[in-house]
Amino acid sequence: MKKSYRQMDKNELLTIKAALEEKYKEEQAKGLQLNMARGKPGAEQLALAMPMLDVINSSCDMNTVLGNDTRNYGDLDGIGECRRLMAAMMEVEKDNVIVYGNSSLNIMYDTVSRSVTHGVNGSTPWCKLDKVKFLCPVPGYDRHFKITEFFGIEMINIPLNSDGPDMDMVEQYVNNDASVKGIWCVPKYSNPTGISYSDEVVKRFAALKPAAEDFRIFWDNAYCIHHIYKDKQDKILNILDECEKAGNPDMVYMFASTSKISFPGSGVSAIATSLKNVEFIMKQLTVQTIGHDKINQLRHSRFFGDLDGLKAHMAKHADILRPKFEAVLKELDEELTGLEIGEWIEPRGGYFISFNAMEGCAKAIVAKCKECGVVLTGAGATFPYGKDPKDSNIRIAPSFPSAEDMAAAAKVFVLCVKLASVEKLLSEM
Amino acid sequence: MKKSYRQMDKNELLTIKAALEEKYKEEQAKGLQLNMARGKPGAEQLALAMPMLDVINSSCDMNTVLGNDTRNYGDLDGIGECRRLMAAMMEVEKDNVIVYGNSSLNIMYDTVSRSVTHGVNGSTPWCKLDKVKFLCPVPGYDRHFKITEFFGIEMINIPLNSDGPDMDMVEQYVNNDASVKGIWCVPKYSNPTGISYSDEVVKRFAALKPAAEDFRIFWDNAYCIHHIYKDKQDKILNILDECEKAGNPDMVYMFASTSKISFPGSGVSAIATSLKNVEFIMKQLTVQTIGHDKINQLRHSRFFGDLDGLKAHMAKHADILRPKFEAVLKELDEELTGLEIGEWIEPRGGYFISFNAMEGCAKAIVAKCKECGVVLTGAGATFPYGKDPKDSNIRIAPSFPSAEDMAAAAKVFVLCVKLASVEKLLSEM
Question: What is the CATH number of domain B61-305?
Fold first, then answer.
């Protein structure tokens, strides 16, 4: 076990600092250009879905199983086989699913936007209310927070623990404050911490007694089948079922997409929710669009076939992602364990590794990495308004670079963590 | 020339009525099942674009001209070559174009929705205003009216003449009433009348002096290259240019899509507007989505190549549509000319023939057609709130049935027009 930086005296730290600075100069001289900023699939992953592009061609029957021509108008809620496929992936019934276009973020945006202009199943439109609040488990997904910020919705930080959000706090807010209208959740392989919600947390969500009739859980099931390991796989309770059992059938919107299964930007996305919610959403959808891209829905349905097809495909993704995650985790473990200058969780799926630096060090680490040619997600991005109160959390996205590049980037990262931490400790002496 | 029904006495009308009723029974007995309700391309038209599905396959280079991978995140405003293609079609510059997903209706919805929640380039959000009004040239496109109705925007009917909307009335409203925030226009091959706006009308639009700074022209250029004839083609002035010249550069949003060029539901759509407007829209788009389907954008760009490619493709559509339009027009001309019971315009493009029956007859005609197995767009649909004050306008969509079926349907239609008109005239005696 290495000696903790926190137990070192000034001279020890100064000695280490000098050595780290030397090493930093060496790394800088390498002229690296690596990007760990966004959860982008790498080239190898994209190649996995290329055969999908041959599935639909000019000699194909373009009709759905029910005989509807996917090339023409119709099937506003998605073609039957694609609704069934997405339902299987989301572990819900086909009738609860509307298949949209290529972006689940767009569905979330639309869902908030509709609530702002038209309320929720007959409630007062949020734009007519003085105050609307959302709970935001942190660290969380920056793009969720951007949506609520865009609509002027006040965001309240909720600590995200290793088993899910702090449910005492969630219950306190939701059950007592009628201006709390929603909560952003990534329940499985959370963005960015990688944790999955425990059964107890899911049950407590389902058992909420919201003060607001139009309170909704925004359940972004982005990584529902996005495992990294074949053996160690998280499983979460089905929130739609649990809400139904708890007498809150309409309280949740679940979102998912194939953006990180087929192609980011050219996948299909879906919402799953109660039949009553589906009915209300369809009233908007009828006005909003003539329908989504059904040929692409057919392409996905025929390529993947069923849930087993999806899972087999995701196993290939896992084989590509695992070494990249492991390269980072190995470096963190070997270089930082025992130093007491950072914490991280080993995720079993998803797209991120979340690192909590010593308080007040995140921005400095990200800046130091950048000067060494390693781009990370901006510090603070994982918090509402881009403000991490502790300046501690850093999101690492290991998917895009190669495993070798990831190893090189991780070396720079731990070096910067050490350097920033030493500087911080010295500044406090 | 046939004798006008209006100049007939009661006995003449009764004799005609009896003969028409006889014929109506015969038609009913045929058990027709024909649909002229919506502007859906027919099977032959869809077949034209099938080779497009081979253009992108697993052995393709998936990069844009600029080297961006269309399979991954990026190019939020659309890939360069597709923006260029859509710009050429819309007769604007590439920088003024954002390529969206598959539905221009969705862009229009988003544009109104954004104005409701966030205003226009910094103006007060429409949801904070007591009253928002849109001008609606009538008859017009039902789905435009549905969007404004959905947002509780008051709609004001403006007569659509053979050269465009009644501009005296448009100027009167726009230049004096600050609650008038928009006008819906289909400037070329108008839905449903088929007329195109004259140069003078376009110039008067551009020269408007709106009382509201956030007034915008919603210029749905849905049929910009959708000619029916090779020789007789309408041409309209470029509204973006004209607005710029008139000192109103930000006053117009132009919309277009390839829904009726490639595939309805699987095409690409675009907005064209001033750079200032583009900038404001991009602030929303960044929050709303991770981007649109760039593989489909690449598919369209490579298949059509350039504007000449688009035009050559549309000439094939014209060859298919022309006989269908002509079958209806021939029937109308042969059977109704001189009777003074209806008026219509011979469109040179677009998807519709608009028929104005005697006042108070449209609903009766549509109902009679339905009982004979011929489904038309619901009477009134071409007006805001579905209310045609004169109960006169009927939209005929000749694209979906075969030319033979169209001829059969047109026969039923003129029969029902005659019968309803005779009944109306008799009821007034």
Answer: 3.40.640.10
